[in-house]
């Protein structure tokens, strides 16, 4: 019994490593759980219906999201002026926008907001990243369940990254990831 207590960690570690090598599917599930960015090959691809969102520009021309498919990466963010976590991540989004706007089309969609509130928020904070209000329905594949929700889509509509909640979008790891996947 003393032997088991003294070596419990070692025994558990050996069993864990053995399971990883004997059952590759377990290894993939753990990899996807802790390293979701690395699982791009398993990513969902949005279809044309998901991309068909008519957007009214607040500080950018009106457009349809489908017009951006096939060009560059798309940074698609759903946020609201009423949402404290959304406001918290805005400075990092603005910095990322200035650093990567040549590699990425930025689409920040204000949800459940009045246009005047969005304009006031943008002016008050000096933000310039392109902001829109959706004027058409958003499919369930894209419609956020929490705010903020951000997608990084490749030029074919494949979801490379999905973040539910606040993130530091100006971090070194985000910049490196974008540099690695941007065409």
Strand line-up in the sheet with most strands: 2-1-5-4-3-6-7
Categorize the overall geometry: elongated
Counting helices, strands and paired strands, the structural category is alpha/beta
The rounded distance between the terminal residues' Cα atoms is: 59 Å
Share of residues in strands: 15-25%
Please provide the count of β strands. Answer: 7
- Average predicted local confidence, pLDDT: 88
Query: Could you state the order of secondary-structure elements as H and E?
Result: HHHHEEEHEHEEEH
Q: Can you tell me the residue ranges where pLDDT is under 50 for at least 5 consecutive residues?
A: 36-41
Largest sheet: 7 strands, mixed
Number of alpha- plus pi-helical segments? 7
Computed Rg: 20 Å
Helix fraction by DSSP (H/I, runs of at least 4): 25-40%
Which features does this protein show?
single chain, 183 residues, alpha/beta, 7-stranded mixed sheet, 7 strands, 19% strand
Commentary on this structure:
The chain has 183 residues and is of the alpha/beta class. The protein is 40% helix and 19% strand. It has 7 helices and 7 strands. A 7-stranded mixed beta sheet has the order 2-1-5-4-3-6-7, covered by helices on one side. Strand 4 (104-110), helix 6 and strand 5 form a beta-alpha-beta unit. Helix 2 crosses helix 3 (24-34). It is elongated, with a radius of gyration of 20 Å. The protein starts with a helix and ends with a helix. Mean pLDDT is 88; it is low at 36-41.
């Amino acid at each position: 019994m003393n032997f088991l207590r003294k070596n419990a960690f070692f025994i558990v570690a050996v069993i864990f490593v053995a399971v990883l090598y004997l059952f590759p599917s377990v290894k993939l599930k753990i990899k996807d759980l802790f390293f979701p960015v690395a699982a791009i090959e398993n990513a969902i691809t949005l279809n044309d219906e998901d991309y068909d969102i008519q957007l009214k520009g607040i500080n950018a021309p009106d457009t349809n999201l489908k017009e951006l498919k096939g060009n560059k990466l798309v940074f698609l963010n759903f946020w609201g002026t009423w949402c404290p976590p959304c406001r918290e991540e805005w400075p990092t989004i603005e910095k990322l926008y200035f650093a990567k706007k040549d590699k990425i089309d930025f689409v920040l969609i204000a949800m459940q907001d009045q246009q005047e509130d969005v304009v006031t928020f943008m002016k008050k904070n000096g933000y310039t990243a392109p902001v829109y209000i959706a004027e058409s329905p958003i499919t369930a594949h894209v419609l956020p369940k929490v705010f903020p929700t951000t997608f990084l889509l490749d030029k074919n509509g494949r979801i490379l990254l999905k973040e539910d909640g606040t993130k530091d979008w100006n971090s070194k790891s985000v910049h490196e990831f974008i540099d690695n996947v941007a065409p």
